[in-house]
Every structure is written in C-alpha cells, then in structure tokens.
C-alpha cells in the first residue's frame, strides 16, 4: 500500500511539474527580433516606441531591435536568420525568405525646382543637374528609372549627391544644381525641408513640382514601386504648394516577417500594431501612416504573410483553436497515465493479496503438518515458523497492507496452528510415557 501511494504521489508531482513547465512556456512572452536602421532613422524610432509600449503593457510579444546600417542590411539580417522581422524599402532590398506584415509608410518621389530654372516636366531635366538628397544609391536609381521611361539618356542628366536637405538652397544659389530629388513621406523632415529650401532659393516664389504622369504605368509591372498623389497644398503656403495635386512615383517602407515565423505570432503582432497605432502616434506621428497591404496578390503588390492575412480578414484562431490538438493530446496522455497508475495499483494490490493468501495457506499447511508430526523437533520448527508469520502479519497490519478482516483471518489461523502444535506436543508426550512404562 505504501509503495502504491508513493508511486501515485510521484506521478502527480510529475504531472504537476509538466503542467508548470507547459504553462511557463505558453505564458512567457515571445521576443521577436526586428532588423531596422540606421538607429537615427524614423523607422528605428517607430519600432523602438512600439517595443516600449509592448513591454509597458506586458503583452505576450516583445520586440528587440537588431541595429543595421540601412534597409539592405536589414534584409540580409532576416535572410541570414539574425532577425525575425525587418523594416525594408521595397525598391532597396526585399528579403527572399519574408512576407509583408504591414506598410509602415508610403514615400513619395518628390522632384522640385525653382520657377526661375524653366523646368516644368521630367523631359526638361535634359542637360540639367539634379541634386539627390541623401546619399542613397536607391534614390539615384529612381531618377534613372524615370529618365529611362521618358527616353532620356542618363548621361544627359547630371547628378550631385547631397548629404541632406540643408545643402539644397546653397547648391541651387551657386548653380551647382537646377532641381532637387527627395524621397520620403510628405510630412517627414526630409521632404518638407527640401521643399522649403527650394522655395527659399527661388526667393519665396512657389516651387515647381515635377509630375510623373505615367507613374501608374511605371509601377504596374514592379512589386517594388507604387504611385503617390501629392495633394494640393500638402506643404502649405499662399498660394498653396503645390497649386494642384501632383502624381508621382512612390516606394513603400514595409515591415516584413520571416516566412518561418508562426502565423499566430504574426497575427498577434499585426493586431497589436494597429491597436497601439493611435497611442504610438502621440510620440511618433509617423505611426499614423501604418496601413494594411493589398491582399490580392498581383504584379504590383506584396506577398502578405498568412498570419497577417488572418488578422486583416478577421480569421485569427482563438487560443483554444490553436492549441486544441495539444489539449486533446494532453487529455489522452492523462488518461493513459491514469490507466497506467490504476494498473500499477491493481497489480500491487493483486501482489499483496497473493502474498497474504500464501501466508494464510502456509498457516493451514502448518496446522496439517502439526497434526501428523512424529518428532518434537518438527513441532519446534513449525512453532518458530508460526512466530515468523505472526511478525509478518503484524508488519502488514501496521503499514495498512492488511485490513481488519485480514487480521481476523490471521488471528484465527495462527490460533489454530498453535492449538494443533500444542495438541500434537501433548499427544507425543503421552506416547513416550506409554513406551516408557512398557519398557519397564
């Protein structure tokens, strides 16, 4: 009985330990590594703010920034397994092993010139110099893409790399450049500062925004580019800047997730991203630009991660739906374990009962042997064995392996054995006395 109790207790402790480990694994927050850079960029600030809010609200997901030098390195970090998520610009580098989660913001290709330079269209850039704001090869490639579409040899347009929008006004006034190209959100510092610098270089006259009327045709065959409308008055001023809505080419900054990342994690991340968007926007206004990608895959759209699709289409599985198989397996395992414990207990009880019955059988055998014993030495041996059986019975009774009925059975059997031994001992004594008198 004690052995069965110990086995049952051990099994219960094992089940409790397994349950605690399982609960710990399920309840522990999942940390997702996000490759983004450089750290001074708006994208890095946006991801950092999102990570801080997730940690502050004790959400099940946490974000850990993997700092990079830019979008291209972020894409490599994800492909190489150093990150689970990455912020990339669609025309710079798209990881091979990733799918889109959300569009963080859409950037416009803004080409602007002072009205005094006589530049009104892309074709007017021939034999002119364009200042590329930010030393990014991707921005230069965007200009070359536009020139190729309008059949302008790239050699016919000179370019000058500028470190930032603060160099635009001086470069225009000195004649080093005739127009400036900047890529970014229309509410971002880079584009606003560039438009402001061109306006100042034109002595306050409204700048000319070069439209890309065929932006849709350029973007249609490419998943890396998009179209963008710079609405009338986007940059303020009187008269408004621009005076009419200008169509141009656009690129997107996208949060992508590794294809191997579980759908449940991506669904939860997407939910939290849109839930926290208004809160994050208080500190990082760029968060207001977060939007869902197009779900209908086509030549100009991104492939969206199934986990994000589940959120956008309101098909996110509940906790029970996700882990129902594990629940059933757990119940099956508990059932098997319970059956095993019952079998062990049954075997232990059967073994104990067999042991008890064998002792009782031996007591009855002692009674029979005592009645036919021919020597006192045999009776002495049977009496010693009877004492041993009594000791075993008392031990079993003390440990609970022998119940009250068993004790009564042993008491009766042992009394019969002692009585038989005593009777036989007296009988052998009388027989010896008769033999002694006969001998005399």
UniProtKB/TrEMBL annotation:
Pfam families: NMT1_3. The keyword Lipid metabolism does not apply. Keywords: Membrane, Transmembrane, Transmembrane helix. InterPro entries: TRAP_TAXI. The chain crosses the membrane at residues 326-345. It comes from the Bacteria. PANTHER family: SLL1037 PROTEIN. This is TAXI family TRAP transporter solute-binding subunit. It comes from Enterovirga aerilata.
